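Entry 14. Structure prediction run on the chain below.
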Amino acid sequence: MKLAGDQLREILIKSGHIKPEEFVSAEKRAKEAGKDIEGFLVEEGVLSDSQLGKIIADSFGWKFIDLREEKIAPEVFQLIPEIVARAQETIVFDRSRDRVRVATAHPDNYEVLKLVEKKTGQIAEVYYATPRAIEDALRYYKSDFFRLINVIIAELRQKLDEERVVSLVDMLLEYAYHSRASDIHLEPGKEEVKVRFRVDGVMHEVFSYFKELHDRLVFRIKILSRLRTDEHALPQDGKFQYQKEDILFDIRVSVVPITTGENIVMRLLLGNIQRFRLEELGLLERDFLKVEAAIRKPYGMILSAGPTGSGKTTSLYAVTQLLNRPEVNIMTIEDPVEYEIGEVNQIQVNAKTGLTFVSGLRSIVRQDPDIIYVGEIRDNETADIAVNAALTGHLLLSSIHANDSGTVFPRLVDLGVAPFLVASSVNVVIAQRLVRKICPHCIETTKLDPHEVSLLSEQKELLHIIKDLSGTERIEDTIFYKGKGCKSCEDLGFLGRTGIFEVLEVADEIKPLIVEKKSSNVIRDKAIEQGMTSMLYDGIIKVFLGITTLSEVIRVTKI
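Output returned:
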């Protein structure tokens, strides 16, 4: 139940859980962040979601239920159609001989309760559950996607009907959306095609289908993406938008021929640019201040470095969002334009028409921009124009493929940029990786087992950091965190992702090393000596803060 700010303030102050001035401060910060106050208080850890729900329920005299503690039978859940459950924020979570137990965010919605009683022929016992808990519980309906998809596949095995192929593609997209997947992979083998989703950076096989069906799915996806349906020997890239009821998102499509057929990867571009706030990406305060200082400079380069899928674009969009003010002209050249940013002039690369990074960037500098965003520096010409733009009064943002912050400088030199120009143009490098976050609903403490202790004993740098941050000499006594697994995270123990970073400022001590073409290790070591937090150190800080796990940091830093 969404309460008015005055109502919620009165309830929380009366219950003694928050002071008046604390609520006013939280309400102001929630408004600045574009969030509702209830969700903000939970995110900030002022109250847990269940605590907030119990306080609200008690104040109105309602029964309260914490749905995360309930194990709901699928047949009980299906008593209310999904579309009704989602629209009314109401579910059935238990059923006995004479009554059904209903959880709702709106206990005063008598029309829905009457509907439940009429459908079941039983008395509805009503409980209040928070909107967030209801939203988590609604994921139970996702299991129905799996069942329906397999029903359609079985039907198509009997008869390859075009209408059912269309339904299968639609259901696949919805299934991925509700699973929080960032990518859908259709991978043809010799006899069957595997469907895998990437969730929080990790691949999961979800189902498979018979090989004869694959050509029909490929044809349908190509039609949606406006790709050539008669081309099977060359890679193709496209994009389309999916909309159904209140669901709307873009899908970027890549089709690549492999020895067993056409491999398809679809990236789901979810949400909108408002979600990309620099202060929410996971930067430690000192690193955030470094980036903020670089943003305030009128010219120079801010580079985001890392492999594909490390969150570079997200970070650059967040910086762009922070710079987006009426008094500046921001122009971008991207491939593709993943998210539209209001009041920013965004250009989509189109090789067919000759609009490349190079030609687009040349045109942009003639458009009187203050800030230029180049999707990626990948060749000599782009690097050369970008550096010159940064040296002639423009603030330039871009990404570059590099393993860490120090590697960026030799990489630019390899692309043909003179070392002294690199040293003069780059303000800051943000190197990063993405790690999965521990599910906050099932987090628990843990210690390393003997096998893990043995494996870590050879990692001298890692051991030094762990001992430095934990204050313990014996690693087997060190307390870590993990997710036990619950229905909120689908028993994975992880929910969402965050970044681990190293932010290298090109200070006066660093510039001579770049000019002298010193190795990336020498540059990086000097930056650490000057106070830079290494990516590994940043990751271990987040391990001890209970944000992620030790194994996650090791996995993404490839120790």
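Residues 156 and 164 are 7 Å apart (CA to CA).
Filed with the rest of this week's runs.
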